[in-house]
Amino acid sequence: MMSRVKWRVSLLFVLITLSIFFSMIANSDRFMEFGGNGTFTPIGTGISREDRITNLTQRLEVGDHETKLSAAAELGRFGETAADALIERIESNISSSGEVNSYMLLALLETRDSRTETVLSESFKKIQESNEITAEEQAENEISADILQAIEEKDRAMRRNLAISLDRDYNDETNSLEAALRAEEQNSSIYDSFALSEFEPDEPGSETEKLIKALKSDSGSIRIAALMALGERKEAAAIDSITPILTRDYSPVQSSAAYALGEIGDERAVEVLIKQMKDGSDSVRSNSAIALGKIGKETAVPDLIQRLRDNRAVVRSSAALALGKIGSETAREPLIEVLNSGKLIDGRAKDSVNANEDVRKSAILALGEIGGPGVTEVLTDILIDKEERLSVRMAAAAALGNTGDPQAMETLKNVFNDRNTDTNLRNQAFLALGKSKNQEAAELLVEKLGDREFGDSARKALSEMGEVAVDPLIENLKTTDRRARDETALILIEIGDPKAVNPLIEAYQ
């Protein structure tokens, strides 16, 4: 009798378990979807197609790369209904992000809607116009992203040091100013508020006039805030009020003044910056050198070359970056000498300061900008020298990419193809190849689009190569690998070359 009862209880338990299991399956898609950094609308069996499409479109806006590719593919299954929503968003420019629009155009391709060709053609016109403006701006600057990033890192270090100094001198009184100095993105609003805080609301004059007046404040923190605000605003009217501060105030305020003068970029500041680059404290000399690089006046070159022999590594490093930013060929040999004299032989360097990692990286990047006789050979020696620090070798790879020398491209290719080389260095060499605007390099990059280690770098480099990469990318649309096809299509959309429209349409039919 007991065994029969146990059997019935067991059967009932099995039935209940199965009931719960099938209930969970039936309702599984009612759970919240997550993708990237966003939380999305619940999708269940009772939800409308329109709501599903809205949810998937949200994933195009806030998901990570993988989520966006998946959402684009899913939207394609909704055909015309999804196309209506996508076209409305694309044509009304609801998204301010070009990247998001690229994913929307990819999703539209997935729908195979008859309107796709027209929408794609119109969008490509806008993308081309935007890319041409960007290319013109880059051509005017003629400065690589590598050296600009290195200079920005110097500025960040200067701001961090200012924040540390303020915290030491003022404790909690300057918290908001310290936060503004540590922020990655700089704008003048917090600096404005802090600098103007000692004035009454009815203080006469414009904001600029009051900021200039704040430079005479008894409080060093107010003067620093005013200098930062004027620098961010690029107020040329403040030059005559800032230059005396650079020579007379205490070091943190002087550094702020040097930064402000560099941001304003007025040639009237060159003479006083040259003076302080020789006579100021370590931080003032370093920041004055960076400011001279930003202003870009050739007359500063001899004095910057002289600072390559400064007794402090931070000043030599800043002087090297400034010379690279100005791009004077006069600096080529002195910069090569910095690298040669800092090379370790049997554990020792002829000049120990030039063996400093930051000095070497800065001199390398500067030579990549200047280029010319002997540069490729020097940079190649550093790149393949296993005794050099990894970060220095990576800087050499980046700089070789900026030279545009065919010999440098061959070296970079060899480094990338060597599987025994550090992955980070191979990746840097791979990115540097993308700067070459070379058909052969483009083909190599296309081959690596589906690579787990180098796919992200290939995508970025091909997008930046522009027109040179279009033909190899169009050829790659014929791949049977759906993921590789979507990656290829996305890059072609970002480039926006009109001749890619028909191949894209055909690839998704």
UniProtKB/TrEMBL annotation:
<dbReference type="GO" id="GO:0016829">
    <property type="term" value="F:lyase activity"/>
</dbReference>
<dbReference type="InterPro" id="IPR016024">
    <property type="entry name" value="ARM-type_fold"/>
</dbReference>
<protein>
    <submittedName>
        <fullName>HEAT repeat</fullName>
    </submittedName>
</protein>
<dbReference type="InterPro" id="IPR021133">
    <property type="entry name" value="HEAT_type_2"/>
</dbReference>
<dbReference type="Pfam" id="PF13646">
    <property type="entry name" value="HEAT_2"/>
</dbReference>
<dbReference type="InterPro" id="IPR011989">
    <property type="entry name" value="ARM-like"/>
</dbReference>
<dbReference type="GO" id="GO:0016491">
    <property type="term" value="F:oxidoreductase activity"/>
</dbReference>
<dbReference type="InterPro" id="IPR004155">
    <property type="entry name" value="PBS_lyase_HEAT"/>
</dbReference>
<keyword id="KW-0456">Lyase</keyword>
<comment type="function">
    <text>Catalyzes the hydroxylation of the N(6)-(4-aminobutyl)-L-lysine intermediate produced by deoxyhypusine synthase/DHPS on a critical lysine of the eukaryotic translation initiation factor 5A/eIF-5A. This is the second step of the post-translational modification of that lysine into an unusual amino acid residue named hypusine. Hypusination is unique to mature eIF-5A factor and is essential for its function.</text>
</comment>
